[in-house]
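User: Some background: our group keeps a shared notebook of sequences we're curious about, and every so often someone picks one and asks for a predicted structure to add to the entry. Today it's my turn. The entry only has the sequence so far, pasted here. Could you supply the structure so I can complete it?
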Amino acid sequence: MQFTINDRPVEAACDLRTSLLDLLRDHLGLTGTKKGCNQGACGACTVLVDGERINSCLALAVQYQGRSITTIEGIGDIGALAPLQHAFIDHDGFQCGYCTPGQICSAVGMVAELRRGLPSHVTPDLGAASPAWTREELQERMSGNLCRCGAHNGILDAIEAACLEDAR
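Assistant: Of course. Here's the predicted structure to add to the notebook entry:
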């Protein structure tokens, strides 16, 4: 199977039943993406496929051949963190840090959704050209990513500071 992962071509041989999450972690050593519930309920395994966020635990790797996949390792660098990664530090957007990679990948995908004008469950005006960038909108869009430590306010503050202000 061939993929583009974090802007690099990757070839991997694995069972057709291998999840994208297991391909990333077990076959390619990209352990930033976390295995939380392994049922698509917590968002710890969120990655971007062609810029859209997905739960990699629910996806078969074979489904994403030839596609562009971005994991947390593809967002920022060790020596040059992305603004969102800095914001998580500045706003105490993590405690144990386990959910952080999925939160950051989800936030990147969420901002792209807002920029494309996609409504959510709480968008009041479905006919508007783009949804309002409100705290309620952000909470709804990030509701698929759970933090068991209770750092939700810091996470939301970090995303508002790094993404929403810049994207308005």
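Suggested note for the entry: The chain has two domains: 2-74, 83-167. The first strand starts at residue 2 and ends at 5.
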